[in-house]
């Protein structure tokens, strides 16, 4: 499916907001052309969920650039070394950085990264618990104790409302 076909499909559905996600969308063939086509449509709000390992600089010249939700993988994920911290230079207030924490060590690292790169001044910042590995109240207490103003708690409500392993909800 071409970038123009994807744009026409989105338009035919009547939606105004579209999120590119699944795997790593920024690694998909033709992603720059797709973003250029979608970004020209001022009626569409496009968001990209990225795992934070792909450099954003190659997208910086796209007019009306979509917003990015970028994960930062913390130590318990065993993926932290793949994070492209240079991406923090390309973030704006319409973007989001999300830290998924599974431990106090993760929270400490998240705070360090947030402070070092002044992320609260650059983007929306969220900390989300790894389900059943850390309690939400422990994250909130850590945030309070460390005066993490401007950092938000994100909760995966579908894991609370339904069975955590339930798919398609």
TrEMBL record:
Q: Return the CDD domains for the record.
A: Radical_SAM (cd01335)
Q: Which InterPro entries match?
A: Aldolase_TIM (IPR013785), rSAM_sf (IPR058240)
Q: Does the keyword Iron-sulfur apply?
A: yes
For this chain, one GO molecular function annotation is: lyase activity
Q: Which organism was this protein described from? A: bioreactor metagenome
| Record's protein name | 7-carboxy-7-deazaguanine synthase
Q: Which UniProt keywords apply?
A: 4Fe-4S, Iron, Iron-sulfur, Lyase, Metal-binding
Q: What class of enzyme is it?
A: lyase
Q: What residue stretch is flagged as signal peptide?
A: none
Q: What Gene3D superfamilies is this protein classified in?
A: Aldolase class I
EC assignment: the record states 4.3.99.3
């Amino acid at each position: 499916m071409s970038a123009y076909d994807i744009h026409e499909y989105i338009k035919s559905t009547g939606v105004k907001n579209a999120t590119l996600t699944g795997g790593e969308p920024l690694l998909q063939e033709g992603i720059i052309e797709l973003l250029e086509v979608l970004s020209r449509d001022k009626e569409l709000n496009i968001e990209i969920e990225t795992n934070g390992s792909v450099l954003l600089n190659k997208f910086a010249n796209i007019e009306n650039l979509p917003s990015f939700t970028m994960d930062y993988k913390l130590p318990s994920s065993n993926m932290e070394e793949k994070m492209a911290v240079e991406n923090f230079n390309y973030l704006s207030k319409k973007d989001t950085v999300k830290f998924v924490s599974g431990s106090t060590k993760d929270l400490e690292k998240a705070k360090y990264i947030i402070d070092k790169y002044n992320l609260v001044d650059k983007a929306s910042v969220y900390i989300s618990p790894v389900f059943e590995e850390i309690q939400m109240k422990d994250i909130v207490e850590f945030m309070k104790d460390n005066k993490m103003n401007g950092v938000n708690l994100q909760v995966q409500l579908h894991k609370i409302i339904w069975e955590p392993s339930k798919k398609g909800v």
